[in-house]
Amino acid sequence: xxxxxxxxxxxxxxxxxxxxxxxxxxxxxxxxxxxxxxxxxxxxxxxxxxxxxxxxxxxxxxxxxxxxxxxxxxxxxxxxxxxxxxxxxxxxxxxxxxxxxxxxxxxxxxxxxxxxxxxxxxxxxxxxxxxxxxxxxxxxxxxxxxxxxxxxxxxxxxxxxxxxxxxxxxxxxxxxxxxxxxxxxxxxxxxxxxxxxxxxxxxxxxxxxxxxxxxxxxxxxxxxxxxxxxxxxxxxx
Length: 237
What we know:
The chain is an all-alpha fold. It contains 9 helices and 2 strands. The longest helix is centred in the middle third of the chain and has 30 residues, at 131-160.
């Protein structure tokens, strides 16, 4: 599962960081661009590529859910993917987004100032009518893929294999940090901390929806906010 999804991303991310560290420019003067154009100057082809990328990127999460369906109790019991607690899910989603988002932004600024992170460009799509909807879909895809695979599937499988809960949480957090290493060391630390918080939440509540929604909120604010207000965010550049 990990070899065809985020484990593979982690390996490429380590190589990408090594390439940045051995380049002629310091890490802080380099850029990591997310959500870039796939066909510059050809908007309809670009949109097609964007939608296909989002569609296929979420497939490993669907595969993880399918595999867990065969376990006793089914995927709803294992991951809490049901509608039994909508109020709790909504409230904790907002809380988690706030708890992770503001400190994460501060850590990014500090890491860049210390030369430990590249400049992250969350959105670099052309000015087309579909840009914002695609960014929202991209945010949701990231959330579904990461939370289902790195939290839900990985924690359940590691616990079923007899690993201690602390080991499972550490593995989940380190993996989350690792596939963000292409952005720099600050991104690794920030996402690893986020991984610990999210994994602890899941272990205690067995609810995956709040993590998916919170992650979607974080990425929507990052992607769409940058696309709309990049000219006013000089402190992030």
